[in-house]
Amino acid sequence: MKRILGEHLIGPPPIEEDIHHNTDLIVLVMRPTRIAVRIRRPGYLRSYDGQFTLRYSRPTGTPTEYEKILKGWGDYFFYGHAHDSQQSLRRWWLCDLNIFRQSLPLPLARQVNSDGTGFLAFAFSTLPQNFVKATNNHIQQARLL
After folding, report:
1. Which of 2, 9, 21, 113 has the smallest CB count inside 10 Å?
2. Which residues make Cβ contacts (< 8 Å) with residue 83, sequence separation at least 6?
């Protein structure tokens, strides 16, 4: 995950920086950037490709990912499906949570697990195209600013 995020948070500087300030690479985001991460275990990709889930309820009442996002916490969301070895990712998406908050998509489904934890499922296709900043399906050239 660090390698993937580095590829999208570090890039070439403007030519003036290179010429005058000895800068060959530049960090594109220079403020605290909060990145939420959710990696699904192997076996879910076939059934749920193109979707992502967020926890929306807990029996304990502890604030959930969904509640925190709606309150404005988090800048980006890294979502992926683990490969069988669980040491690599089969599919991943890097998403802009500000776009999510602006669009407030309707969930495809709600599910409550046997432990009482509730999840909302969303389709990437129901969000604006600029919600996904990068994916290993097709890397988008958008930079995170």
Report:
1. 2
2. 42, 89, 90
For residues 96 and 120, membership in a common domain is answered with yes
For 121, the enclosing helix (H) or strand (E) is strand 118-123
Residue 141: inside a domain:
no
Any residues with CB less than 8 A from the CB of 54 and at least 6 apart, and which?
38, 64, 65, 66, 69, 119, 120, 122
Nearest to 26 by CA among 10, 15, 14: 10
Is the domain of 15 the same as that of 59? no
| pTM score | 0.79
Radius of gyration of the chain (CA): 17
- Tens of pLDDT, residue by residue over 15-46, are 887 777 777 777 766 677 788 999 998 988 88
The one-letter code for the residue type at 138 is H
Which run of H or E residues covers position 103? helix 97-103
Q: Beta strands 76-82 and 118-123: pairing type?
A: unpaired
Instruction: Tell me if 144 is assigned to some domain.
Output: no
For residue 124, how many other CB atoms are within 10 A of its CB?
18
Question: Which residue has tokens 């969930």?
Answer: 107
The number of domains in the chain is 2
